[in-house]
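Tutorial handout. Part one gives the primary structure; part two gives the three-dimensional structure as tokens.
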Amino acid sequence: MDASNSKVLLVEDSKFLRLANERVLTKAGYRVTVAPDGEEALRVARKELPDVILLDMMLPKLSGPEVLRKLKESPATSSIPVIVLTSLSQRNEEKLIQEGAAAYFEKSALDLDKNSDRLAATVESVLHRISLQKRGVQS
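Part two.
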């Protein structure tokens, strides 16, 4: 999938991380929309229908797990891949994948100076995998 045609919803309550990640994704060619809390994330996801959602787990108003559950329960948003962004340890990865997350990304891996492309590469990988799955179903 071409990054320039892909819409990303970035859900992050930390203004610093939101701006830094938005800059990285925009530089990689994605069209980025942001939401600072769980309620706004659901509203924007339903309105914009992004190609992928980057979802922080620790959010005000509605927690990340609640947002993930609501996204996966709604027919309008259930097929949108969600990449979980969290400070929590990787032992939660399996549970989050079972709950519908397409991928898991630890914030500690976000070294914005040295490896700023890792986040964009994760987004591209998930979008590519989803694109292949859709083609496989349609073939």
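Part three, for discussion. The helical segments are 15-27, 38-48, 64-73, 93-98, 117-138. The beta strands are 7-11, 31-35, 52-56, 82-86, 103-106.
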